[in-house]
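Q: A reviewer asked whether we had any structural model of the full assembly, not just the individual parts. We don't, so I'm hoping you can provide one. Inputs are below.
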Amino acid sequence: MNPLNGYDIEDLSVGMSAEISKTITDADIVMFSGVSTDINAVHLNEEFGKTTMFGGRIAHGMLTASLISAVVGNKLPGAGCIYVGQTLKFKAPVRPGDTVTAKATVKEVMVDKCRVILDTVCTVAGKVVIEGEATMMPSSRARREAGK
Amino acid sequence: MNPLNGYDIEDLSVGMSAEISKTITDADIVMFSGVSTDINAVHLNEEFGKTTMFGGRIAHGMLTASLISAVVGNKLPGAGCIYVGQTLKFKAPVRPGDTVTAKATVKEVMVDKCRVILDTVCTVAGKVVIEGEATMMPSSRARREAGK
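A: Here is a predicted structure for the entire assembly that you could use as a starting point for your response.
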């Protein structure tokens, strides 16, 4: 572990995983609309939402994806890592009141490049709503001890 | 255009583009921390931030990426489209006070699959901070007129 209690790349191995869960509420949707400026009616207008294939308002896909940022940034690898990249496939809608679990699982560790690839999946009641991969640059004990 | 004033896939052609700009403030960072639960110290603790390679606090990468959601969801293709996927490469930090421009440019239109690929780039003062691609399913005039 690094001094921030995050994982160094030397601590990581394929199959390690971590997760967080959070209920997506109307407050989240309103705040995310303000932060992002994404005010699409399908997120904010229930009467419009009812006319769509979703049958009501849905959360922004990127709002749900923000939970992936939390699990990789705060848990695995956690503090001290740098977010390099992310892929996202939006598979199903998330509705106000749904509880999302974001899980990250180490898929590949590249010590020479100081990169780790994690499978990142968001689910609601076991159903996949987002899937993709995160690329992270964790801290490195070897680099730290070498003063780099 | 569809009845929501968004683009139908039949309206889209390679090279069309749209953009939005927004200043990322401390208020955005605090609200995004709450919405995402990503409370990494590099976003919230200036004294810690000063000890990092960034020299101070930086915005969450996914917060900046949320502006891509806004430009594709509200402008191009805009209302009536469905967000299918996104790739993100985080290239440089965004600091409180930075004004981010998110630009989407149509790269490929697949009428048969009803999908459009857009290059999505976020810049600060002309410097690329995020690059990637969005995959969208726009509305379709042909499908609408066929009652599908």
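A: Points you may want to mention in the reply: Chain A touches chain B through 36 residues (CB under 8 Å). Chain A has a mean pLDDT of 95.
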